Amino acid sequence: MGFNAFDDFMFSFVPIFITTVFIIVIGFIIFTIVSGIGQWSKNNNSPRLTVPAHVVTKRAHTSGGSGDSSATTKYYVTFQVESGDRIEFHMKATEYGMLAEGDVGMLTFQGTRYIEFDRK
């Protein structure tokens, strides 16, 4: 009789647990999509600004790459504008490679979206 009670518990607990995990995962995916769309919309509604700036620092963040999986690298550059504020942007590897710390020029951006840096 002891095994029967355990079996009954497992048959009622496991589906509830799997359903809960499924709902959490789907909820996280939906939250990520909605957040991305919200940021995209906010950027589109922000003014496009071109301001004098200089490159303060560059960094790259690499993730993955263990076993048979490939590594992914994201590139970030921090600019300082005339007011002293610093802004970090995610950018493509080709644009990242064309910038050096200390470069001075005109930074164009829209919200959190990097558009270009025209080096002087």
UniProtKB/TrEMBL annotation:
Keywords from the named record: Membrane, Transmembrane, Transmembrane helix
InterPro entries (alphabetical): DUF2500
Regions that span the bilayer: 12-38
Highest rank taxon of the organism: Bacteria
Record's protein name: DUF2500 domain-containing protein
Biological source species: Sporosarcina contaminans
